[in-house]
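Researcher: Here's the sequence for the chain we discussed earlier.
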Amino acid sequence: MRALIAAAATFATAAMSHAIVFPTTAHVTNNFIPFGSGTTTMHQVFDGNLFLAQTGGLPALITDIGFAPGLNGTFNLGVLNVNLGYTNRTPGVGPPAGLDIPIAGGGGLPNASGAMTPFFSDAAYSVTIAAANSNNFSEMVLTGTTFLYDPAQGNLLVEIVLPNANNTALHVSRTSGSAESSRAFDTSRFGSGTSPGTATRMDFTFTAVPEPGTMLALGVGLAALATRRRRRK
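Model: Thanks. This is the structure I predict for it:
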């Protein structure tokens, strides 16, 4: 009985949602990458341990990604696609161990370990910012599908694609790079490059998801407990 209650409590705790800004280092400046001013594709790697520290070692179901804009106004970015996946590249260092310049147009290459999963897509994305602030992640939140991220499969790779590099630029909060996260970008205006020393700050909303075996064991245990109670009656 106590074991089942403990298991149920563990499940309830694991199901709690998290809204965490990664990387954890403080805001340094606003920067237009990846939202306009010539950038067409950006890759950013996040250390999987960032998520593990919040989920207690469980996979994370990502539901939203937010950014803190640095300018007020209405920004028409046009086509905006965000894809999520895995990478064996290391944050905070340059290639070949770190990210290479991504191939324009998306698809995760050459940094993805396998196929990327579409997370957000809008053919005519526009956002109005009324209270730009380096810590205000509520004004630009991308909510698309969900992505079940299992850090055991590799670090998280975020891919942001803006096919039209001439559309309005939107500044977002940037931080100094660290071992937690770094980025690389393909651009048509000022030269593509890798940026191990900087990273875009992103606010991830996610829920820890118990392993299927754990959920099955809990379900069987609760069913057995219910049967036992019925027999006592």
